[in-house]
Design goal:
Layout (H helix, E strand, L loop, with lengths): L6 E5 L18 E8 L3 E2 L2 E10 L1 H18 L4 E7 L1 E4 L3 E9 L2 H18 L2 E7 L3
Helix pairs in contact: 1-2
């Protein structure tokens, strides 16, 4: 079995393309998936979606670093992260975080910490595309 199957990616591909990024494991009793979904409103206005852009080389390095650091903190957990760039329509996911650990509390905590670090450290920006009329 691969000792470090964790990974991160940044592309215009839908998160569903990465849903099975980590294979199920009998070692891990918890397997959670977080989808960051574009809401239909922003600041009380209806939107078509969000156009995400990134300083791609730095964003990829930061995503890889976040996953690697979380992995190093506990080598038994497995983490997959995919963030979309480009236009993401309302109702579609722009972010996938999948975590596998032995226990559920650790899986939720790891997912929450991963999301916190992504928002604080990864150079990804959003431009809201509003509906007109």
């Amino acid at each position: 079995m691969d000792e470090n199957p964790s990974f991160s990616s940044l592309s215009d591909l839908p998160v569903e393309e990465f849903e099975r990024a980590l294979l199920s494991s009998v070692r891990h009793g918890a397997d959670i998936r977080f989808h960051g979904v574009v809401r239909e409103t922003e600041a009380g206005r209806l939107i078509k979606g969000i156009d995400y852009s990134a300083y791609e080389s730095m964003a990829i390095r930061e995503l890889e670093r976040i996953v690697r650091e979380l992995q190093e903190e506990n080598p038994d957990r497995r983490i997959a992260v995919h963030h979309r760039v480009g236009f993401v329509a309302a109702g579609e996911a722009s972010l996938l975080i999948r975590v596998q650990t032995a226990h559920s509390a650790e899986a939720f905590a790891t997912c929450q910490e991963c999301l916190r670090r992504i928002k604080a450290q990864v150079p990804i920006w959003k431009r809201v595309v509003y509906r007109h009329g």
